[in-house]
Amino acid sequence: DAAERPLPQWDLFGSSFFMFTALTTIGFGSYTPQGSDHSKWVVLAATLVGLPLSVLLHDTLARMLLVAVTRAWRRCTHRRLTTRSEVRVWLAASVLLLLLGGLVFSLVEDWPFLNALYFTTVSASTVGLGDYVPATAAGRVLCMLHTFLSLGVLASLF
Question: How far apart are the first and last CA of the chain?
Answer without folding.
Answer: 36
